[in-house]
Design brief:
Layout lengths: L3 E5 L7 H4 L9 E2 L2 E2 H11 L4 E6 L3 H8 L8 E6 L6 H8 L1 H4 L2 E6 L2 E2 L4 H11 L3 E7 L9 E4 L2 E5 L10 E10 L14 H10 L3 E6 L4 E2 L3 H15 L13
Parallel strand pairs: 1-4, 1-6, 4-5, 8-12
Antiparallel strand pairs: 2-3, 6-11, 7-13, 8-11, 9-10
Length: 246
């Protein structure tokens, strides 16, 4: 399984009522545990063995909590933000030495059901430098932002008017180091810019997943995720990792 870059450097301002000024969102308690426990346990259950945490706000607290990753069955590297913030794309580019030539990118505030081995095989068959997992959302859980055409992502636009798109970026992509080559080291840019450059070249494959996403970046998302994970822990849902430790 390819290594996974986890972007978890944001301030989490929308969740400040729950996190306060100091607690990083990744350590926000959900279903009785810091959320990062569930995120890492889910990745390990999917076959991942290496994760790279890209950290900003609260980096030291998160690093102390996860340690070297052994408690989750993972090897974890930590790459903190430097003095100059580089954005999500710049943070991933800075981490290429830890990530290698092909890797996943996801977010530290999402809980996603992705058949990782199947997606990796689809990525290899596609023979392109990037693949985005997508979900047929139809504006149900958030504003849809993706159009597909012949197995590729044809459009990706955040903030589109309701009804514009059927699909949404699921929040877990496979990228190659080469996809970042147009962006000079040390420059600030958003991951969306990398994706847009691949789309413009007709080089971003798509893979449709079947289950809705869960996230803790909003109050409504937090409540839904808390209920979902509590259902897993109490056994009313099966086939999911428990809590990552113990």
């Amino acid at each position: 399984m390819y290594p996974v870059a986890i972007l978890a450097g944001g301030l989490g301002t929308r969740m400040a009522r729950r996190t306060g000024p100091r607690l990083p969102k990744a350590l926000l308690e959900v279903a009785g545990r810091p959320f990062i426990d569930f995120k890492l346990a889910q990745l390990a259950a999917g076959g991942v063995t290496r994760a790279v945490l890209l950290l900003g706000h609260g980096a030291e607290a998160i690093a102390d909590h996860v340690g070297d990753g052994a408690a989750y069955g993972l090897h974890i590297d930590i790459v903190p933000d430097g003095e100059v913030l580089l954005g999500t794309g710049g943070a991933v580019r800075r981490s290429l030495p830890q990530l290698g030539e092909v890797f996943w990118v996801t977010y530290g505030d999402t809980y996603l059901s992705v058949p990782m081995a199947e997606v990796e095989e689809a990525f290899r068959r596609a023979g392109r430098p990037g693949l985005m997992t997508v979900f047929r959302n139809c504006d149900a859980w958030d504003a849809s932002n993706v159009a597909l055409r012949e197995g590729l992502v044809a459009e990706y636009r955040k903030g589109a008017a309701p009804g514009t798109y059927e699909y949404i970026d699921y929040g877990m992509s496979i990228l190659t180091a080469g996809a970042f080559a147009p962006f000079p080291p040390g420059t600030a840019f958003d991951l969306a810019e990398v994706l847009q450059s691949l789309i413009a070249a007709g080089e971003l494959a798509a893979f449709g997943v079947q289950e809705r996403f869960y996230e803790i970046g909003s109050e409504a998302g937090y409540l839904a995720t808390d209920a979902y994970l509590r259902a897993i822990l109490t056994g009313t849902r099966t086939g999911e990792p428990s809590d990552g430790q113990g």
